Amino acid sequence: MFPLISSRYLLDKNPLVGHVAQILSIILWTGGLVAMKPASTFAPPLLVVPAQMILGTIILFIFVLLIQWKINYSSFVAGIGFGALAPGLAFTLNMIAATKTDILTITILWGLIPLLSPLLGRLFLSEPIVPSLYLGACVAVLGTFWLVTMRTSTGVSSLLGNMIAAAGVFCSLCGHILGRGLNRKYLKPLDMALGQIAGAAIVSSLMGFGYFLYVDFEESIFDLMGDLITFPIFLYLVIFATVINFPLYNFALSKIPVAWVSLYAVFVAPIGALFSNYFLNEPISQKDIIAIFIILSGVLIPSIHKIRREKFA
User: Fold this and answer.
1) Contacts of 204 (CB under 8 A, 6+ apart)
2) pLDDT digits (tens, 9 = 90+) for 142-159
3) Which of 186, 291, 6, 38 shows the shortest CA–CA distance to 195?
4) For the whole prediction, is pTM greater than 0.90?
5) Domain containing 303: what range?
6) Which partner for 158 in 101, 174, 200, 201 could form a disulfide, CB atoms 3.0-4.6 Å apart?
7) Where are the beta strands (DSSP E) in the chain?
């Protein structure tokens, strides 16, 4: 008689599960970045993000209660601080940026996270970094500068929008550093994800409340909400980019090395390029493709070096 392998065993012991979770999270998150463009044209960003996070919190809260009947409050509270930065500020700023610039440039900026995360880790956590990081950073920054300059000069991209998106990426980086420490400490990724989305709901709601105090809408906010929750792209943001994505992301943070979590963020740029071109018809030239290749090369240099060093240490 063959032994039965429980799903709990597979989740805890199989090293591939964390990698699969992060890959799926990257795909869903990139889809969320692309979905920001049509969502931000359908309703104000400072209405979309709070609605997305509040509904996501309610759905995930019900799901957590159904499968484990209780919430680990230490993990939940820790997740709130994590979520205030990312996705709270990060997604709100990027949703605002989506109204002013192109999605390809936004995804390119997100693709720089594997380079920027170790630098912040060195600054705030005194973590060691590999020397090849500096070479990779120079290559990736030059490629990014070239790409952004080209797209801005042709009117496809916007400098202001790119700056807002960069601020969102910085918030995500700070949240990433905080989140990786918290997930290793509390080891409750589902409860952490619930707190993360709740924290995002609180921050984005406060920003939205301040916005609506100074804006006079011709249409009722309740009418806008009614239209929004029936909008398929908004439902994708709630279900896939929030409720499914963040538990996957927190699970990956708790199971695999940070070097791998960062490495997979490299694929945000090429996936974003394909999605934005296919779904949004954003133009991509041969020079754009070359610039993306240069950026990916720069980002991959230190990531691969670090993983190889850890493997053979």
Assistant:
1) 46, 49, 50, 53, 88, 91, 92
2) 888 898 888 888 888 898
3) 186
4) no
5) 17-311
6) 101
7) none
